[in-house]
Request: fold
Amino acid sequence: MLAPLLLAASRSGRMRRLAGSTPMTRPVVDRFVAGETLADALTAVHSLTRHGIDVTLDHLGEDVTDAVRARATRDAYLRLLEALGPEGLGGRAEVSVKLSAFGQTLPGGHDIALAAARTVCEAADAIGTTVTLDMEDHTTVDSTLAILAELRRDHPRTGAVLQAYLFRTEDDVRSLVGRGSRVRLVKGAYKEPPSVAHQDGHEVDRAYVRCLRVLMAGDGYPMIGSHDPRLIAIARELADRNDRARDSYEVQMLYGIRDAEQRRLVAEEGLRVRAYVPYGADWYGYFMRRIAERPANLTFFLRSFTTR
Ligand code: FDA
Reply:
């Protein structure tokens, strides 16, 4: 009951302003967000890579409503990639982008977002790394997959996220299992209507496993984007069944969630693990989706408004 309300709040401008103006929310936000600056992000990258965990960095922002902000987001990614290169992190750090932050939903936004993503892919290539396109609400999926196809012509390692809760995803997975294809499979984090997405958690899990079977049997590079121990166990079983080498797939988790497990999977199980590290000032939408996934987190968040 609570999750849909929280997801609706994640898109409320008023709530965004209220949360942003309350400094006491900061410690709660810090659990899920590496900080506001590029320097904060690099500190998190160093600490994770020291533990053998690779990273994908997200400069926070989404749903931009003007071209100036869209260009600013693109430029933030260019600065990030410029900073990662000399640190020799190109091999271990990639970037994740939300096309709505590049202007995808503006008039003519498909082409604006494609041009920005192309520039970021070129900068990523230059330091030996790559880009993954995050997936947002279902209205953007066709545009995002079309942009992916365009980008992969010149940058074949560009990755995409597919969301198991969408009915269409089993077909999308089948079209992205070829050699070189990088797909991060997630359950899905947006509020979607019953006409397009499974609403029941068990149905989502079952759909996830069906997609996983196709990805693990394919020739691409599956990225298991989940903290769910059952799904990770199934992924490993499928990897064995398909004779996959340990470096032919990876597990991905979000910064601040199941940290000890991320380190254990690397140190004790020899798995390749990547943490998704968000940073930047525009944390509200991302943060609210993390709260909606686990409403127990809400208690800590609300307490931060009342404890002074
Ligand atoms: P589930 O929600 O069942 O969680 C399993 C366990 O993980 C929980 O029991 C709890 O222990 C822990 N956990 C999970 N979420 C937590 C939280 N917020 N706080 C504390 N503990 C938590 N979605 C999307 O729509 N588009 C995208 O592009 C992405 N990108 C993405 C990248 C990566 C690397 C990950 C891991 C996830 C995403 N997601 C996403 C989010 C995804 O769709 C999903 O909402 C979350 O991963 C939660 O689902 P789980 O598979 O972890 O299972």
User: Anything to note?
Assistant: The chain is about 50% helix and 15% strand.
